[in-house]
Write a structure and sequence with these properties.
The protein is α+β, with helices and mostly antiparallel strands. It has helices spanning 19-26, 32-35, 43-52, 57-60, 106-120, 136-144; strands at residues 4-5, 9-13, 63-69, 74-84, 89-96, 126-132, 148-159, 162-172. A hairpin with a 3-residue loop joins β1 (4-5) and β2 (9-13). 22% of the residues are buried.
């Protein structure tokens, strides 16, 4: 796996040492809404997932990279999912774990690195993401990188007893 290096952060492949970090993220109920998680994950299940993380994106149709700062501190995750090589597209998801690390440009730099990687190395034509109508930070992040809202899915997410709308954003490589 190529290490994708930016000015302040880099993206790297998952390692067995990421078990505790991923366990903490996957079991953080405050982000279950954006991850569509409904139940906690055991360390055993996450360990099995990490053991399979080396598999090729063309085989498993997803790629999860760790966002690290220059001090090698793990900040978050950025994902490609529903990778569709035939149609040359993939979904994108991103999370900076700690609120204190958000709004500092780490997510923006990670997204730029991933976009460049997708369009130059994976030869993708488009990327897409799904963002809750209430998630202004993510809306701003994706629109800053030229993603365009192409639709609003009404009552798409059911969370804590109510329905929420979700935008579909696309970035097409012209």
């Amino acid at each position: 796996m190529i290490t994708l290096k930016g000015e302040h952060i880099y993206l790297r492949a998952l390692e067995p040492e990421d078990l505790e970090f991923i366990h903490a993220i996957e079991n953080d109920e405050s982000i279950w809404e954006i991850s569509s998680t409904q139940t906690p994950y055991s360390k055993y299940i996450i360990k099995q997932y990490l053991e399979q993380a080396h598999k090729d994106i063309f085989e498993v149709k997803q790629l999860r990279l760790v966002i690290c700062n220059d001090n090698h501190q793990t900040l978050g995750l950025i994902d490609l999912f529903d990778f569709d090589f035939k149609n040359k597209r993939s979904g994108v998801g991103i999370l900076v774990k700690e609120p204190a690390d958000r709004s500092k440009g780490f997510g923006s730099e990670a997204l730029k690195l991933l976009i460049d990687y997708c369009f130059t190395h994976l030869d993708l034509h488009q990327l897409y993401c799904n963002v809750s109508e209430e998630n202004e930070a993510s809306i701003n992040l994706f629109t800053k990188h030229n993603f365009t809202a192409v639709g609003l899915k009404k009552d798409w997410i059911y969370f804590n007893g109510s329905y929420k709308n979700e935008y579909l954003f696309q970035l097409i490589n012209n």
